[in-house]
Amino acid sequence: MATTETHYTQTTPTDNNKWTFSCWFKKAAPSSEMSLFGAWSDGNNQSKCRLMTNGTIEFIEYQSSSTVGKLTTNRALRDPSAWMHIVCVYDSDNGTPADRMKMYINGVRETSFSVDTNPSSGLASINNVSGRVMYVGRDYDGGYWQGCMSHVQFVDGLALAPTEFGEFDSTSGIWKIKTGSYATPGNNGFHLKMEDASNLDLDSSSNAHTFTTSGTLTATKDNPSNNFATFNPLCVPVSNSSTLSNGNLTGVTSTSSADWGGVSTLGLDGGKWYYEFLVLTSGNDNLRNIFGISSDPAEVARANTEVFNKAYAYCWKAYNSAWWYNTSGSAVETTSYFNTFTNGDYMGCYIDLDNNTIAFAKNGTLERSGVSNSIASVSTAGTYFPIWTDGHSGWSSSINMNFGNGVFGTTALTGSEDSDWFADAGGIGRFKYNPTQTVDSVSQDYRAICTKNIKAYGG
To answer: Distance between CA atoms of 242 and 226, rounded to whole angstroms?
Structure first.
């Protein structure tokens, strides 16, 4: 969301002493402070839930410059690759003081807190007040959300269990989403599914409240039921000021002494996969783009020189149009092997871990007439990760990545399927160019990189 939020001006509440907030989220910046929701009359009177810089979560009721209720988790939740679910319950009428504020993470009540303060009996909340604005994605001090949200629900007048919004899978035991709207949301209740790309702030509850959005909400195919790959913000060199943004799908390298790039949050152990990106850099800097796969993604974070000095890595190097690979600990370059690419080009990578090949495309056209290059098998190399990197210190590069998420930066792919965008053969994802391609004279179905496909096709 960056500096984006959406908000609703509340009406007369069903019960100012009792409410439930539920949200599925995927955080993008592990070390940033950001808010899931907030409501306030001023800086001395606030109600909010936020993720702190150290990875802990705070659920706070702050009144007349005093903390009247606060839960701060002991554990840190830093995972930028996973969707998580949180439920915050405010119930000051509860006869048990310890139950007046409750927090649930992925269906389980959080019980270990560094701060555990509960409101006094019958204390009205700052949230859920007539005429007060409730914000989704920010708090009083800013703290804008960075990442994805889905199925944000607020229920006025009831203290609900997390099982109203999710359930444990009977086979895997994994906590999974229930997508229906709670039947009796109360006067101020709402349900933002955030699944209609043309109307992301639509309230799907029976109240159908009107929300106002400041900034731009961007649609993505990434959701709690199907987790898509992004760049991993934990895999960056500590000496580099390079940045990720837009849900960790935009990568910008700095001009510092360290080379850097992006590594996928999801690794691949089998199957056929496709990803693409838009080159953003102008001038000579775009010549420093390198992309492909590596079985040692941490090398991208470690390296202060060229980043493919360890086996196994296979890539297209723009600087000299090279096929650049490493199978023995020493990089090999075949220069002038591919075409050049530049600012505004869409680059594609086709990974076949069933036949141990890789192929590349520029603006939807396969390089070298669709003839692939061989790569080491997973049994030899280990798990492969899609990668992109700036291969020269002192230069900067930037791209917008798409693993099937359906968005380049803040621009979602729209229009007609098979004309303006393409899904994979299973109807999953949204790409600029077709992930089904004829490689080595055979039509091949390459898939979006997401958990649903990895479960079905290997990886």
So the answer is: 28
Tokens 């269906």 map to which residue?
Answer: 107
For the stretch 260-312, pLDDT in tens is: 678 899 999 999 999 999 998 654 545 567 899 999 877 766 654 455 566 79
**Does the pLDDT of residue 98 top 80, yes or no?**
yes
H/E/C letters for each residue in the chain?
Answer: CCCCEEEEECCCCCCCCEEEEEEEEEECCCCCCEEEEEEEEECCEEEEEEECCCCCEEEEEEECCEEEEEEEECCCCCCCCCCEEEEEEEECCCCCHHHCEEEEECCEECCCEEEEECCCCCCCCCCCCCCCEEEECCECCECCCCEEEEEEEEEECCCCCHHHCEEECCCCCCEEECCCCCCCCCCCCEEECCCCCCCCCCECCCCCCCCEEECCCCCCCCECCECECCECCCCCCCCCCCEEECCCCEEECCCCCCCEEEEECCCECCCEEEEEEEECCCHHHHHHEEEEEECCCHHHHHCCCCCCCCCCEEEEECCCCEEEEECCCCCEEECCCCCCCCCCCEEEEEEECCCCEEEEEECCEEHHHHCCEECCCHHHHCCEEEEEEECCCCCCCEEEEECCECEECCEECCCCECCCEECCCCCCCEECCCCEEEECCEEEECECCEHHHHHHHCC
Q: How far apart are CA 287 and CA 271, in angstroms?
A: 30
Look at the pTM and tell me if it is higher than 0.90.
yes
Contact 45, 63 (CB under 8 A): yes
**All domains in the chain, ordered by first residue:** 5-214 (2.60.120.200), 243-457 (2.60.120.920)
Q: What angle do CA 364, 374, 387 make, to 5 degrees?
A: 60
The residues facing 291 across adjacent strands are: 316, 388
269-to-107, 205, 360, 386, 456 alpha-carbon distances in Å: 30, 41, 19, 12, 12
